Amino acid sequence: MRRLLAALAAFAALGAVAAPASYAIDPDHTYPSFEFPHMGISVWRGKFRKTRGTITLDREARTGTVDVQVDAASIDFGHRLMNEVAAGPDWFNADMHPTLRYQGTVRFEGDRPALLDGRLTLLDVTKPLELRIGAFKCISHPVFRREVCGADASGILDRTEYGMRQSVGEGGNRITLRIQVEALRQD
């Protein structure tokens, strides 16, 4: 999931620059989330409340990197029992695996970040995970007077590949990872 936050790499700032720019992920405006079928009758959505990380973008070279780290115990479905189950040993096992991580490379289409080609580490299992960047925009932050970029990225993973086998067959193994992110330029 941390790597899912790599979607944060969808940050291309206004105008071209000669060197890579560094961005700090804003933990108050970044909430990776999971969506999955609940017994095939509805879709459950949970977000992680604690995230940190960095993004670099070289707009001239049209490249970048993402490193997003997520506190597994911060999962919030808006339902106390589901939060406990999700943080427990059958799902994220937050006591043994407190951090989820997404690391990746930003791929551009023209002048715009469009894809994160990365790796998600979940339950100490690392697998490739591609995230498609949807919305993307950069502006001058009205308070900090520095560039801030925001993006929305998503991808699909098979939870069983990471060892999450609880309730397999009760609605599918596919989880949609969505990362809504904002990051503030540091240099």
Explain this structure to me?
- The protein has 187 residues and is mainly β.
- It has one domain: Lipocalin.
- 4% of the residues lie in helices and 54% in strands.
- It is built from one helix and eleven strands, in the order ββββββαβββββ.
- The protein has an eight-stranded antiparallel barrel.
- The two termini are 27 Å apart.
- The N terminus is likely disordered.
How would you sum up this structure in a few lines?
4% of the residues lie in helices and 54% in strands. By secondary structure, it is mostly beta strands. Residues 1-17 have low confidence and may be disordered.
Largest sheet geometry: 8 strands, antiparallel, barrel
Q: Number of DSSP helices?
A: 1
The proportion of residues in beta strands is: over 45%
CATH homologous superfamily caption: Lipid/polyisoprenoid-binding, YceI-like
Strand order of the largest sheet: 1-4-5-7-8-9-10-11
Order of helices and strands: EEEEEEHEEEEE
Distance from N terminus to C terminus (CA atoms, Å) equals: 27 Å
Classify the helix fraction into a percent range. under 10%
CATH class: Mainly Beta
What structural class do you assign from the helix and strand content?
mainly beta
What are the salient characteristics of this protein?
single chain, 187 residues, mainly beta, Lipocalin, eight-stranded antiparallel barrel, 1 helix, 11 strands, 4% helix, 54% strand, disordered N terminus
What is the strand and helix layout of this fold?
Layout: E1 21-25, E2 31-38, E3 42-48, E4 51-58, E5 63-71, E6 75-76, H1 80-87, E7 99-109, E8 112-122, E9 125-140, E10 147-158, E11 174-185
Antiparallel strand pairs: 1-4, 1-11, 2-3, 2-11, 3-6, 4-5, 5-7, 7-8, 8-9, 9-10, 10-11
